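User: Teach me something about this protein's shape.
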Amino acid sequence: MHSTGYKALWIALFANLSVFLTKAIAAWVGNSAAMFSEALHSLSDLVNSIFLLVGMKLASRPADMEHPFGYGKEVYFWSFIASVFMFGVTSMGSITRGYHQIIDPHPIEAVELLVIALSLAALFEMYAVRAAMSAVLNDVGVQARGFKAIAASFKNINNVANPAVKFVFYEDFAALVGVVIALIAVAISKVTNNIVYDGAASIIIGIILGVMGVMLAYENRDMIIGRAAHPNIVRRIGDIAMRVPGVTDVQEIKTMYIGAHSLLVNMTIETKPKLSIEYADDIVAEVEKRIVKRLNIVKEINIEVVADDKISDWQKKRTELNELDKH
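Assistant: First, the predicted structure itself:
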């Protein structure tokens, strides 16, 4: 189980609990649709964090006869459930509450309390976003600070294999945006004495969360089906194999994530013709040893050896991977 993802998830859980209690009290006192949506959002985030913790716990179980590659994909299933929960509960609840506030407006009370609560929530969310960005950068092995860390996090988020890290990042960022929108809406509603802004903010927050829920559901569906590793990783696997003495080419590399930080690799390498079986086995063992040593994400590897057919495949495939990486 990856400690970085666990740490980010626990931080998000306690932050969501604190923020939910703050927002819930303010929403009850202030009668604001935007604040209600934010309270609902934090409640959903809290429940989602629990789902993800359950998924990571179940995913850590060792392999057995029925699941020879382990239970790593449990984390993708529970992350999928969390994304559906975000869409069904948070998004639809926020949109519904905003709609009713527009067609049947109720005055906002205790605006000062709402502003204080939202300001405190913004501080909590900024801390959570900072922790989530750190988790993203650690997951992909990138070092950056300040504003560069923000840009690097968004640039590398699609390369993150751990759905818990990815979910927490999107969740916390959406929460921060929602808090800012709610804060602006409450202020404008008070200044203009027009409650429509409060209802509109609730609907906007709901739409943002709905988009996030659908996007994360699609992402986890892709991982459950069986996504291949990023082209950078595939390229590194091939390059490592090509540097082993006796390997003349790499015909094929197939990869699939079987867990948040577990990669299955099937590859075919070529060796010089007429090698003894013992020497071929030594080459396979050395290729496997080097790949596992340099890429600790590789947990399962199967290598097939064929005789050199004098046609080089790896350079052509490497060029194709470079083109795929650009897109």
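Now, about its shape. DSSP finds ten helices and three strands in the chain. The longest strand covers residues 247-259. If you'd like, I can walk through any region in more detail.
User: That's plenty for now, thanks!
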